[in-house]
Amino acid sequence: MTNSGLILRNATSALHGKKVVNLRVAFVVAEFDRDVSDQLIWLFRENGIKCWTERDILPGSNHFGAIRRAYKEADFILVFLSKASVARSGEYQKYINLAIDASDEMPEGGIKLIPICLEQCEVPFSLQKFYSVAATQPDALLRLVLAWAKEWQRRHGADDWPDVVYQSVWE
């Protein structure tokens, strides 16, 4: 069972109220892990981060085409893992594979996909090449924010993050 209160407190502490405009984060979440992801999405949006889940797909859109595009355009993709989600088959696994495909387009050493373990669970083999974060650890979300900052600086040559302004279809 996940401790969503602890995870949210850790995320709040990690962000320190910093407004992070222009950062786009896509979420890969199984429906039974939505309580935690919805709280993080709210917190991230309060701090200027643009968040996307498959619930943002408009009616009539090509479902997997929209997901593929969002993952490709995202600065980062967070894959939420729990005991229940990793045991699940179906669309959630397809979303993970689409996220891996988007991440594979990054240059060597770049960070795009970050698995987040909401509780102690087995990381699927397909995600084991990505270093995961245990969300319940006190410094886990600080490490997530630091990974974002480091990768942002690498991509944009910025001293701080995010200093770069660009057009976004995520408005």
Automatic annotation (TrEMBL):
What Pfam family is a match, any one? Answer: TIR_2
Query: Which Gene3D superfamilies does this one have?
Result: Toll/interleukin-1 receptor homology (TIR) domain
GO BP terms: namely:
signal transduction
- Start and end of every TIR domain? 30-136
Its recorded name reads TIR protein
The organism is Candidatus Collierbacteria bacterium GW2011_GWC2_43_12
